[in-house]
Amino acid sequence: MGKLGGIGTLNRLLSPWLSRTQTTIPQASVATGDPSRRQSHHQAHDLVERHDQQHDVEEVRIPIPYGEIAGKWWGPKNVRPVVALHGWQDNAGTFDRLIPLLPKHMSFLALDLAGHGLSSRLPDGMMYHSLDNTLVLCHLMKEYRWKKLSLLGHSMGSILSFIFAATFPDKVDFYIGIDALKPHIHDATKFPARLEKRLPKMLQADTRNREKSEPPSYPYEELIERLHLGTNKSVSREAAPFLLYRNTRKSTLHPDRYFFTRDSRLKHSLGVGWDQETNLEFAKRVTMPYLFIKAIHSPYYEDRKYFDEFVEVVKKNNPLFELEFIDSTHHLHLTEPEKVAPVVNRFLEKYWKKDEN
Question: What is the pLDDT of residue 41?
């Protein structure tokens, strides 16, 4: 695959999503708790900031016991937002191209989950687990004094939304999932060996974190290529800067190179690990309005029979369940949001209700 040709090419890639008018970015819209951030990112990120400014996006921080969760608030501030949850090793930027296509009178709060984007990492010596982020949603509700959540999730964020909605069905008024239906079922005979390899790697990543050593760095164009190819091309080169904005930083050791800032322990995190019968019991509890969107050209990450079995149980127990297949790849909401927005908008028009803060 050919490499990108610098900032000129990136400008051309992003220009359909940005106004050509040069503007000054208010400091509050890019607040990160680190005054040096704007001096340490690539020029392509200025374009992302312009995009945020044009849509009046506000950076927010939610306190949690080990630090803070970062987020991007879109839309009116006096309306309880739909909480948007990203996929594994992604961040709140994953929704940057979809949310502008959704109703302007609604609010959306896209979060960076722990260890991702601009949010705090778990304390040293700890390991990430899929259930950790259910507590993040509890902290969020407590901080804003919300009685309910409206959820929109992609991949890992979709699985998190499912677990939370099924565990606390009275606390979720609707749920939209994108391209990961539920916790996946893996070959049990391979799990012990996988854990045997994963735990030492997690310890190694934790040691590197505590040493405060800088991760490997790359030219920015190579970061785009790594993200594009590392997602099996489901993140287009055009869309890549929206994710890279919140999880890269300029190297202090090598001029004109950048490194990923997400917590490397995430690579060795654990899923819930439960069986299909447990998934099906949870499925019976998802009785609120529920839309699931599956990308046709994205894998199921498990035997298709588990997906179909789960869908049948949900359909049997929930007349408000909707299943849509879209001709796209795993990051369809980011790379081809124009295909996703009409489906989401129809669902929101039916089930969204204004809930003022």
Answer: 64
* 341, 101 Cβ separation under 8 angstroms: yes
pTM (2 decimals)? 0.89
| Dihedral over alpha carbons 272, 273, 274, 275 (to 10 degrees) | 140
Q: Which residue's structure tokens are 């998934």? A: 279
Helix and strand totals (H; E) in the chain: 11, 10
Taking Cα atoms as reference points, which of 265, 10, 310 lies closest to residue 114?
A: 265
The 10s digit of each residue's pLDDT in 35-84 is: 445 556 678 888 899 999 999 999 999 999 999 999 999 999 999 999 99
Closest CA to 251 of 223, 226, 218: 218
Give the active site residues.
Answer: 155
Judged on CB neighbours under 10 Å (0-12, 13-18, 19+), 314 is buried
Q: What SS3 class is residue 31? A: coil
DSSP labels, 155-202: THHHHHHHHHHHH-GGGEEEEEEES--SPPP--GGGHHHHHHHHHHHH
